[in-house]
Specification:
117 residues; mainly beta; 7-stranded mixed sheet; 4-stranded antiparallel sheet; 11 strands; globular
Length: 117
């Protein structure tokens, strides 16, 4: 059973930076597309960034140029480095894993990121 454990959320001032991490366990990390999604109060969950096993990435329009997703296979961990944070980036950030073989999908519990103005 895949388990995802996010860490690194917190409170940061507008314009600041933060890195969140997601530790993957329970299966082979190398066959999963990893992603970060976020959900703000009263809004739908939206894609932030995704990264394929080979390192190909895609980003939501609102974070392009400010956020970077990366993965470290040796540590079974995916990161989201966030720069130039804005109050509208405030949300619960969820880690997602999707198998490239079965398309089975898993979610972490989420980590709160709050950007103060």
């Amino acid at each position: 059973q895949v388990e995802l454990a996010e860490s690194g959320g917190g409170l940061v001032q507008s314009g600041g930076s933060l890195r969140v991490s997601c530790a993957f366990s329970g299966s082979s990390f190398s066959i999963y597309v990893m992603g970060w999604y976020r959900q703000a109060p009263g809004k739908q969950r939206e894609l932030v960034a995704r990264i394929s096993p080979g390192g190909s990435t895609n980003y939501g329009d609102s974070v392009k140029g400010r956020f970077t997703i990366s993965r470290e296979h040796a540590k079974n961990t995916v990161y989201l480095q966030m720069h130039s944070l804005k109050p509208e980036d405030t949300a619960v950030y969820y880690c997602n894993a999707q198998s490239v073989r079965t398309y089975a999908e898993y979610w972490g519990q989420g980590t709160q990121v709050t950007v103060s103005s």
